[in-house]
Specification:
binds carboxymethyl coenzyme *A; 3-stranded antiparallel beta sheet; 50% helix; mainly alpha; globular; Citrate Synthase, domain 1; single chain
Length: 436
């Protein structure tokens, strides 16, 4: 086994080096503070491995993504989303018997308790689907306290996967004032979701195979992405032995931000702004290069990928396929492709290795499928659920897991005396509480 040496204040310390199955190297500093009194400082954790994991492998330099060793391209070409969920959570693809039972459980558990449906009537119309989804997933532990029972973990898992789809579809129906549509046992996961979103009591609704395939693929490309912000949130919250539903509710909140899953909505906002501005995409590329503009090209760049995100390659191809099959034209597609062309040739983006990420084309695809923009991040969450669950389960089963509790380097005031009220001066910053 190789080792790494650290010299601190002239004293040498040796640490073990561990190597993963894909030859990724890590210096194991578990005993660093105990032996040296020092800690490491790594804002944003860009150099920190928080765990060992056998779920997903990413090589960001060459653009590789594999779930349990299987390339994302092969899964998108041949698998169905429920079997990918099973693969991520249980570590292997289900055989035909296991798959049939898994699909049956996913449908049986997708119905909601009537009092849970009442919740939907009490959210205001302004409620974002991510706020509803996060709240409803947290609420599951109120309806199913047996989530605390480790012996029932498989039931808790399938319940969450099945009901989250219903929550997402119901939140949409609520927002447009239509009655909820119940799931059907003879439909696939993707077809059921589309039906629950778009069927109305007035008309016969037949699920388009083009849309069903596209949704299946979208869910698969989002299914896991190792230790990203929301997945690390699941592990962080779950490390305190918080239950599955509370941990995943926290992850949904983490995903919502525009630097993470919220980027798919932000991309469409950006493309629409460019469209309204006469399609002047060069102006926006120039603006993204100016640090003081506060503007970034949404859907571009990634902490791990320093090459084309393989998920963006798959989705870009699917955009052409779906739009062609549906006979839809979308001016935002041309803007997106032009933006990509010019950014990929621009020194600023080339030097920083900024490529389109998964969110660059997913929004265009959702739009073509008739999914409203406010639902985009909730769609990402539905796809990411099996990944979050797999990581929560792996962490809980790993004997090396400890409560997540990073340290800090304190740079605040040294010991300071308390100032009595009458001697305090007005401070430079005044909080603003006005509503404008
Ligand atoms: N547009 C313009 N400049 C950018 C962009 C961008 N989209 N992304 C990064 N940069 C620049 C950044 O200004 C910095 O420049 P410099 O080195 O001169 O200071 C350099 O590239 C490195 O950026 P960073 O912010 O240090 O990189 P990070 O790893 O901390 O952030 C990111 C990664 C994804 C948050 C960032 O690239 C970003 O804000 N992208 C836009 C939002 C987005 O598309 N998010 C979805 C991510 S993929 C889906 C998911 O996993 O959720």
């Amino acid at each position: 086994m190789s080792t790494a040496k650290l010299i601190l204040d002239g004293k040498e310390h040796e640490f073990p080096v561990i190597v993963g199955t894909e030859q990724e190297t890590a210096i194991d500093i578990t005993t660093l503070r105990q032996r040296t009194g020092a800690i490491t400082l790594d804002p944003g954790y860009a150099n920190t491995g928080s765990c060992v994991s056998s779920i997903t492998f990413i090589d960001g330099e060459t653009g590789i993504l594999r779930y349990r060793g299987i390339p994302i391209e092969d899964l998108c070409a041949s698998a169905k989303f429920p079997e990918v969920c099973y693969l991520l959570i249980y570590g292997h693809l289900p055989n035909s018997e296991e798959g049939a039972e898994w699909r049956r459980q996913l449908t049986l558990n997708s119905f909601l308790h009537q009092s849970m449906i009442n919740f939907f009537d009490h959210f205001p119309v302004t409620a974002h689907p991510m706020a509803i989804l996060s709240a409803m997933v947290a609420t599951l532990s109120a309806f199913y306290p047996d989530v605390m029972d480790d012996k029932k973990i498989d039931l808790s898992i399938v319940r969450l996967l099945a009901k989250a789809k219903t929550f997402a579809a119901y939140s949409f129906k609520k927002s447009i004032g239509e009655p909820a549509v119940y799931p059907r046992t003879d439909h696939s996961y993707a077809a059921n979701f589309l039906r629950m979103m778009f069927a109305t009591p007035a008309e016969f609704y037949e699920v388009s195979p083009v849309l069903e395939n596209a949704l299946n693929m979208l869910l698969i490309v989002h299914a896991d992405h190792e230790q990203n912000c929301s997945t690390s949130t699941v592990r962080m919250v779950g490390s305190s032995l918080s239950n599955l539903y509370s941990s995943i509710s926290a992850a949904i909140s983490a995903l919502w931000g525009p630097l993470h899953g919220g980027a798919n909505e932000a991309v469409i906002n950006m493309l629409q702004a460019i469209h309204r501005d006469g399609g002047n995409y060069r102006k926006y590329v120039d603006m993204a290069k100016k640090k003081d503009s506060g503007f970034r090209l949404m859907g571009f760049g990634h902490r791990v990928y320093k090459n084309y995100d393989p998920r963006a390659t798959i989705l870009k191809r699917e955009v052409d396929l779906v739009l062609g099959a549906l006979g839809v034209t979308d001016p935002l597609v041309d803007i997106a492709k032009n933006l990509e062309d010019i950014a990929l040739k621009d020194d600023f983006f080339v030097e920083r290795k900024l490529y389109p990420n998964v969110d660059f084309y997913s929004g265009i695809l959702y739009r073509a499928m008739g999914i409203p923009m406010e639902m985009f991040t909730a769609m990402f969450a539905l796809g990411r659920l099996p990944g979050w669950i797999a990581h929560w389960k792996e962490m809980r089963e790993d004997p090396a897991t400890r409560i997540h509790r990073p340290r800090q380097v304190y740079v605040g005031p040294n010991k300071t005396a308390f100032t009595p009220l009458e001697k305090r001066e007005r401070s430079a910053y005044q909080p603003k509480f006005t509503k404008e």
